[in-house]
UniProtKB/TrEMBL annotation:
Secretion signal span: none
Keywords: ATP-binding, Nucleotide-binding
Domain ATPase AAA-type core: 45-361
Pfam family, one: AAA_21
Region of interest: Disordered: 437-464
Species assigned in the record: Streptomyces hoynatensis
Protein name according to UniProt: ATP-binding protein
InterPro entries reported in the protein's UniProt record: ATPase_AAA_core, P-loop_NTPase
GO terms, molecular function: ATP binding; ATP hydrolysis activity
Amino acid sequence: MLLRFQVANHASIRDEQEITFVAGDDRPQRAQRPVPGTRLAAVPVAAVYGANASGKSNVVSALAWMRRAVLDSFRHWDPAGGVPRRPFRLRQDPGAHPSTYELDFAVDGVRYEFGFTVDDAGIREEWLACFPEGKRRKLYTRTGPGPDSLTFGRSLAGRRKTISELLRSNSLYLSVAAAQNHELLGRLHRWFRDDLRTASDQDYRARLTYTVGLLRSGDERSRDALVNLLRFSDLGVTRLEFHEPDERLLDETKRIQAALNDAGVPFRLDAPEHDVRVRHRTEGGTFTLELDEESSGTRTWIGMLGPVLLALGSGGALVVDELDARLHPYLADALVGMFQSPDVNRKGAQLLFTTHEASLLGNNARTQLFRDQVWFTEKDPDTLGTRLFPITDFHVRDSPDAKDNLEKRYLSGRYGALPFLDDELLRRMADDIASGGVSGAGQAVEAGRPKAAGAAQGPRLLRG
């Protein structure tokens, strides 16, 4: 299970921010599970709200970047290329500030704490500890880029010296050890690969490929689960079909891509891995449409089927950016409810998502999110860095047993994390367009370029 994530200096996140799945209250009506070695429990769902550009997506992005660093740093990062990180850039000399990522998670009944600090050149620190009996035990600590900076705890067995010799300045020790088939560290590496998954517009194709994999598998129960989830959405879809891609098209695509790359032109031409079609049944018969003929909402739901079924079936953590994008609020609500429900979520799967959909917080939602499951992001007015904070930071006078209308409080500005809309700027804009300041002449306006003598007066630029 995923327990805590902490990050500093990633994209819009300037200072250290943290999100936790540790429950604040005991709620037997949700699919919470005990944290190994403690008296605590972990919540199944955490939601992150905030205004546009407040940094919600960067919380997800930071977690996804940490995952990719674990999976790719040894096998895929350029040995001489440093670390492809995304530091906070709205300050002087951003490259001089390191970035830190830390995660608490549980695997096979044991809690682990793993983290690292990087700069543009390489790994500055890395650490891994376990809590097999509730007490912290060091597995290894790294205090510099080279193997001589590593120290090991007595709890870590295996070929530690051999693995250390393969370490690069920009590769994580965990990644190297997994590549060398270290039993324990390989198991933790697989948790990042198989049990921590992300879903965003950028990985839609991969998600669709997994959904097709469920259709192709010989597991009849998996196919039935997928079909039932399709029908549950009430999109008029009865089944999915797929056809293997044209091998000649794939070969031609690879040939063109290789020729361009050999010529020094970096280019990637994606050919569809599968031809996916959607079957609909009407009173007039059964009809099949290509996937790209479907609505964006239908395509989004189909793309979510694979990750959702995989998480619910195996108990992993699913991280979704903009859950409500192109989905009806009822469908978004139902999806959250699958993870929240002890009856549906029997393997302890977890869902972390960002959203604008305030109705999920309301009394009319199918799924009740409790106060220890709701987080907000907003921009610090001085640094423009993202602040991440829980709703539990705010005192509520209501009885703990009463269902708080979080939607009403959020939309009224009780918790912040809302956009500030300056009506005075709106009035000035209306004055400008009413006075002819904006015309349909089709003239291009470029900020900072002086107007040539005799040129026609173009639209004025609003500043501030």
